[in-house]
Amino acid sequence: MAFFKHFYFCFLLISSLFCYANEDCLYALASLKYHLELKINHDQDNPIEFSENDVASLWQRVESLEEMILAKNDYYEFLQDNNEEKIIQSHNRVEKYWDLLRENVNSESEGIFDQHLADNGAFYDKKNASRMQPHLLPEGPLKQILHTIFITFPNALDNNETYANAGFTIRFAQPHTFITVSSHPLLEGYLVKAYLNNETRRKENRPGWEWLVRRCEGVKNVQHLIKQKKLKHFVAPHKWIYITPNPGKKSVILIVTDMQLAGHAASVDAWKNKITKEHLDELFCILSHGYSSSYVVANIPYTIYGKFACIDTEHPKRKIDYSYAGRFLNPTMRSYWHKLIRKGGKK
Fold first, then answer.
1. SS3 for the chain, per residue?
2. How confident is the model at residue 104 (pLDDT cuts 50, 70, 90)?
3. What pLDDT sits at residue 258?
4. Crossing angle of helices 52-61 and 331-343, rounded to 10°
């Protein structure tokens, strides 16, 4: 029995990967997933309305996946009987295969167990250390500068005052994530994201270092997709974990490349007036993989170089909320965006 289960799973996996080759199934599943979530949440205010033909066409494109026939049957039974259990079951089937098909670049590596990680106090076992290892800042001038700063100012992360004394300028503190974003005159071209020691709040009760790792994992997803799909209009920063040479409660910080953002007003204007169909085709690709964020003005802002930067990557797999992105577009581009969503991509 175990052999047949393994064989069946392998068959489904191979079929799925074949389907994924042209991404047609992935996009159709992403749109179906979004539509089903609207049904489950009874979203009456959403401006994106799927016609019966839209939905039928999406189901047709995923029928090569055997379980999607079951998901389709569940969906139409829900429409007939208004059985909430059926729509949830349909959604769960779709979400499972959407997750299977999207490109998974979060390759887990055992890495090398750096004793500095263990002694630092940020990690408690080899599993945590190995998860951090692939994202550590490599040896080089940047790391040497950071070492110099934190050896000279060992209490830099204690609070705002000690942080400023070490030369850091806090650009802003994010109210929902409890993280500070700062610059330093010796770190030109880079920004630092850190949880100061006097910050006791925790987002979703997760330790700060874990959120920093998730940001690294998420940005690698986006970078891989941009490279793989040869996307022209979107970029993503490099992000590394740096562990200070001073053991302490919060001694892990995130180093990111400064993407030279044009500012909020310029970003609002760009999303309204500079967006083309090609931009939206690429955005649909990114969001359909569950990457980046639909709050585009703040989380995919405009840069002085004329591209849009995917800077919010702390959720490597994100719930798709296509409609929110449409709020920032002009009427013509919003109409095209809604069409992309209803049709499951450019057809």
1. CHHHHHHHHHHHHHHHHHHHCCCHHHHHHHHHHHHHHHHHCCCCCCCCCCCHHHHHHHHHHCCCCHHHHHHHHHHHHHHHHCCHHHHHHHHHHHHHHHHHHCCCCCCCCCCCCCHHHHHHCCCCCHHHHHHHHHHECCCCHHHHHHHHHHHHCCCCCCCHHHHHHCCCEEEEECCCCCCEEEECCCCCCEEEEECCCCCCCCHHHCCHHHHHHHHHHHHHHHHHHHHHHCCCCEECCCEEEEECCCCCCCCEEEEEECCCECCHHHHHHHHHHCCCHHHHHHHHHHHHCCCCCCCHHHHCCEECCCCEECCCCCCCCCCCCHHHHHCCCCHHHHHHHHHHHHHCCCC
2. very low
3. 96
4. 50
Chain segment 214-273, per-residue pLDDT in tens:
999 999 999 999 999 999 999 999 999 999 987 655 688 999 999 999 999 999 999 999
pLDDT of 320: 76
- Cα distance between residue 151 and residue 173, in whole Å: 24
pLDDT (tens digit, 9 = 90+) per residue, 157-204?
999 999 999 999 999 888 788 899 999 999 999 999 999 988 888 776
pLDDT of 17: 46
* Cβ-contact 179, 173 below 8 angstroms: yes
The pairing of strands 180-183 and 308-309 is: unpaired
Residue 295 pLDDT more than 60?
yes
Longest dimension (CA), the chain: 70
Distances (CA, A) of 5 to 68, 99, 101, 215: 18, 20, 20, 35
**Spatial separation of the C-alpha atoms in residues 187 and 146, rounded to whole Å:** 8
User: Are the CB atoms for 19 and 64 separated by under 8 Å?
Assistant: yes
